[in-house]
Design brief:
alpha/beta, Aspartate Aminotransferase, domain 1, Aspartate Aminotransferase, domain 2, 2 domains, seven-stranded mixed β-sheet, three-stranded antiparallel β-sheet, 14 helices, 40% helix, globular
Length: 400
């Protein structure tokens, strides 16, 4: 329609939301659906966090707050970055927003101009390139496929950088692959970035607490402090504390950028929800012991799913180091026909036929920039995962 903006025409709808909605519609129509398409922990928000929110309401803490967050939360955020990530920051270096996605929007809207480029490793979270395009800039895709464990190699990063490059997006552990960079791997990327002082780094660390097999989480500004003045380190409570609906993201970065993001947020959503902010204070400052228990559960689910998908199904699934996703290849099954008669030309054909014939909802790899794969979120009960894996195995066995 003529009144819609040109900027909107550059943006594609979210594939993960579209598949999840289709699964909900099928379930509402009475179909037996197992939805493994959305990235959301299935645990409840911890009780002490919920109680903090109830206290905030009973104490009347329900009014507007500072645009960039209440002082108590900014102090908690700064303490978290010092404690967990070795970043020498104070509350003045920190910023709070209505979820991690708004932080990315704010940062890019405040800094990108037409002609600017943002290096986006492939596969990517579906929103990264769309946010870049909405801000008038161009995503430059740097492939990090299964041959590199879905991790960006230094030489690939070097080749992607041009004089127009303004940002690099890093996401570790990764959505959609679960790949988690070690400190040594980040060191290789940091060496490249030190040679290109015009490039800023947005590191999305939202899955920080979910690193498996005894691995240690690393973030690039902690690995190379010289990069901290041009790094926006982003995190939030959505995945770590099962607070997806509370909508609290936070970050630390250069004060000039933080001030610009605050200015922009002041003209958009204003402050994040006051009650959710007080809950987030408790999430960051309160007991953290449950995280080890959740991590153990997720690691067990990962092992269940990887073993099941690799069990003579025609799929090839790497073992992810973190997050709660697997990103298997279905390439060997494409060009064939499902038992229900669907022609499986693309990975989207594969996931749509799987949903229609078995009720298992996944997201096709093309949505994340890497065709021939799909993403499965194992943030679900073991019984659901076992059922889903069995259905996937049956579906694959019927392909000819």
């Amino acid at each position: 329609m003529g009144f819609l903006s040109e900027a909107l025409s550059r943006v594609a709808p979210s594939a993960t939301i579209a598949i999840s909605q289709k699964a909900r519609d099928m379930a509402a129509a009475g179909r037996d659906v197992i939805a493994l398409s959305a990235g959301e922990p299935d645990f409840d928000t911890p009780l002490h966090v919920r109680e903090a929110a109830m206290r905030a309401m009973s104490e009347g803490k329900t009014r507007y707050t500072n645009v960039d967050g209440i002082p108590e939360l900014k102090e908690a955020v700064a303490a978290k970055f010092r404690r967990d990530n070795g970043l020498n920051v104070t509350a003045a270096d920190c910023f709070v927003s209505s979820g991690g996605k708004q932080i990315i929007f704010n940062a890019f809207m405040a800094t990108l101009n037409p002609g600017d480029e943002v290096v986006v490793p492939v596969p990517y979270w579906v929103s990264y390139p769309e946010i870049v395009r909405l801000c008038g800039a161009e995503p430059v895709f740097a492939v990090a496929d299964a041959s590199s464990g879905f991790k960006l190699r230094p030489e690939v990063l070097e080749a992607a950088i041009t004089p127009a490059t303004k940002w690099l997006i890093l996401n570790t552990p990764s959505n959609p692959t679960g790949a988690a960079y070690t400190a040594a791997e980040l060191r290789g990327l940091a060496d490249v970035l030190l040679r290109h002082p015009q490039v800023h780094i947005l590191t999305d660390d939202i899955y920080e607490v979910l690193v498996y097999d005894g691995g240690t989480f690393a973030t690039i500004a902690g690995v190379e402090p010289a990069l901290q003045p041009r790094t926006l380190t982003m995190n939030g409570v959505s995945k770590s504390h099962a607070m997806t609906g509370w909508r609290i993201g936070y970050c630390t970065g250069p004060r000039q950028l933080v001030a610009a993001m605050t200015k922009l947020q002041g003209q958009s959503t204003s402050c994040p929800t006051s009650i959710a902010q007080w809950a987030a204070v408790e999430a960051l400052n309160g007991p953290q012991g449950f995280l080890a228990d959740w991590r153990k559960v997720f690691q067990g689910r990962r092992d269940l799913v990887v073993a099941g998908l690799n069990a003579n199904t025609g799929l090839d699934c790497l073992v992810p180091e973190g997050a709660f996703y697997v990103f298997p290849s279905c390439q060997r099954l494409l060009g064939k026909t499902s038992a229900g008669g669907a022609k499986l030309v693309t990975d989207e054909d594969f996931v749509l036929a799987l949903l229609e014939e078995t009720g298992v909802a996944l997201v096709h790899g093309t949505a994340f920039g890497l065709p021939g794969h799909f993403r499965l979120s194992y943030a679900a009960a073991n019984s659901q995962l076992e059922d889903a894996v069995a259905r996937i195995q049956g579906f694959c066995a019927g392909i000819a």
